[in-house]
Amino acid sequence: MIILIMPIGAPGSGKTTLNNYLRESMSNYFYTQRDEDFATLRKTNSLNKTRKKLFSNLELFFENVSSTNHKNPEKKYFVYLDSSNAKIMCREKFYQKLNPDKIIELNFNLSNSILQERVKDRYHPTFPEDHIKQKEMIDIISKNIEFSNPIDTSNPINASNPINASNPIDTSNPIDTSNPIDTSNPIDNRITKIYINEPMTLIEIYQKIKICS
After folding, report:
1. Whose CA is closest to 181, among 194, 200, 199?
2. Alpha-carbon torsion 109, 84, 123, 27, what sign?
3. Given 22, 78, 122, 145, which is the most exposed site by the fewest CB atoms within 10 A?
């Protein structure tokens, strides 16, 4: 059984930190770090060639996971794609390619002030060191992230907390964190959506992942 963990969020959300924690906490764990891979490949390749190699490497990664799962399908294999994963269409392509049994979407929708504080003194292979440029990039990335659809208000678990579905990433109307797990999805019933709108400990996120898996 393949369980895909799909983090969605801007730099500073805690995606890589969570990946490092899960690597030590879970067995049968596979992961990619596409930002790191991109930075390494870009040193010796053109942008176009870098993208092609990155895509090829990802396909090989998926094939390896699928092959391992085919040999022992009774086991649970956790797969983590460490990147912003900002666009719904790109995520859907990953789902089609890997064809996991379960998908856990982690929506890191933290405030820009928290993100800026977290990234200002850290190294990131594709992120500027200048604080002003960091702020500008976070603003741009945050505005362009397509989070999972908000909790379906027809779901009785969440009906008491209606959400404005017309604007799912409007931070003035954040997704309710009192019920941060949503298993409803009218398109793909493999998907469970977890919403992280305020800082949480790694253990808290890990426990939510375990519940969903």
Report:
1. 194
2. positive
3. 122
Structure-token match 């890589």, residue found: 16
Domain chopping of the chain, boundaries: 2-212
Q: At a CB cut-off of 8 Å and minimum separation 6, what does 16 contact?
A: 33, 82
Instruction: Give, for 34, the enclosing helix (H) or strand (E).
Output: helix 34-42
Q: CA 15 to CA 19: how far, in whole Å?
A: 6
Q: Which amino acid is at 190?
A: R
- Which is the CATH superfamily of the domain at 2-212? P-loop containing nucleotide triphosphate hydrolases (3.40.50.300)
Question: Alpha-carbon Rg of the chain, whole angstroms?
Answer: 17
Round to whole Å and give the CA distance between 34 and 26: 20
Predicted TM-score (pTM) of the model is: 0.80
Residues of 26-45 as b/e, b for ≥16 C-beta within 10 angstroms? bebbbbbbbbebbeebbeee
